[in-house]
Amino acid sequence: MAEVTNKESKVISPHLGKYCVYVKGTKAAQNDTLTVSELSSIDVAILVCANALETYSTSGNVITLTSTNTGTVAGIVIGDK
């Protein structure tokens, strides 16, 4: 398990106290993590890896990517700043 590489993220829109962040990175293995440093906690994420929805679990602002898919992972994350 490692942090995804080539990571980029951008805060898209702060509304009603929630923030929507676009994330993208390279997933090398099952259970790699993606830390969304722009957020303190995550409510929901919609992530795609290898043309499939990515399964995940969260703890604070860290997403653990649980599928066996590898490659570019990208999507949106909504949570608290």
Name the overall outline: globular
Q: Record the strand order, biggest sheet.
A: 1-2-8-4-5
Mean pLDDT: 90
As residue ranges, the low-confidence spans are none
> Biggest β-sheet, characterized?
5 strands, antiparallel
Helix content: under 10%
Report, as a whole number of angstroms, the end-to-end distance. 26 Å
How would you spell out the order of helices and strands?
EEEEEEEE
Share in β-strands: over 45%
Structural class computed from helices and strand pairing: mainly beta
Radius of gyration: 12 Å
Total DSSP helices: 0
Number of strands: 8
Could you characterize what this model shows?
The protein has 81 residues and is mostly beta strands. 0% of the residues lie in helices and 67% in strands. The protein has no helices and 8 strands. It has a 5-stranded antiparallel β-sheet, with no helix packed on it. A 3-stranded antiparallel β-sheet has the order 3-7-6, with no helix packed on it. A hairpin with a 2-residue loop joins strand 6 (56-59) and strand 7 (62-65). It starts with a strand and ends with a strand. The relative contact order is 0.33. The mean pLDDT is 90.
